[in-house]
């Protein structure tokens, strides 16, 4: 998504071969598949966690949004210089957000398992 927003050829894989990469339509299809998988599983821990109250919902929303917004904010502040090859810190910022979100949910699941 960062490659399409900022027209970065490294993230679009255009630097190696312009035919390689992912289109916005493919992203929509993958997101639809992921969303349908999550919504169709009523036993998913996430649903139990979100039913726990407004604080749980706001915490999850903040963590989830952060993993996508933080790299974009970094790129807007740092500027977009695609002269250098390779991936920049924005990729690691994204992965940090994903790990924080998953770690938080795993910790909450373990806490619930211990109380039962």
The rounded Rg comes to: 17 Å
- Tell me the series of helices and strands, N- to C-terminal: HHHHHH
Gross geometry: globular
**What share of the residues lie within helices?**
over 70%
Whole-Å distance between the termini? Answer: 40 Å
Give me the secondary-structure category: mainly alpha
- Proportion of β residues? under 5%
Mean pLDDT, to the nearest integer, reads 79
Strand element count = 0
Query: Which residue ranges are poorly predicted, with pLDDT under 50 across at least 5 consecutive positions?
Result: none
The count of helical stretches stands at 6
Biggest sheet architecture: none
Spell out the blueprint of helices and strands.
Layout: H1 2-6, H2 9-12, H3 24-39, H4 45-50, H5 54-78, H6 89-115
Task: Describe the 3D structure.
By secondary structure, the protein is mainly alpha-helical. It has helices at residues 2-6, 9-12, 24-39, 45-50, 54-78, 89-115.
Give short descriptive properties of this protein.
mainly alpha; 0% strand; 116 residues; globular
Short description:
It is built from six helices and no strands. With 116 residues, it is mainly α.
């Amino acid at each position: 998504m960062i490659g399409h927003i900022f027209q970065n050829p490294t993230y679009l894989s255009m630097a190696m071969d312009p035919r390689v990469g992912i289109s916005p339509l493919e992203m929509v299809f993958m997101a639809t598949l992921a969303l349908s998988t999550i919504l169709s599983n009523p036993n998913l821990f996430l649903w139990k966690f979100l039913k726990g109250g407004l604080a749980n919902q706001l915490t999850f929303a903040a963590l989830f949004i952060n993993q996508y917004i933080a790299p974009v904010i970094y790129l807007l502040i740092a500027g977009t210089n695609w002269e250098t090859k390779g991936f920049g810190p924005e990729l690691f910022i994204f992965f940090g957000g994903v790990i924080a979100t998953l770690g938080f949910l795993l910790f909450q699941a373990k806490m619930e398992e211990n109380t039962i």
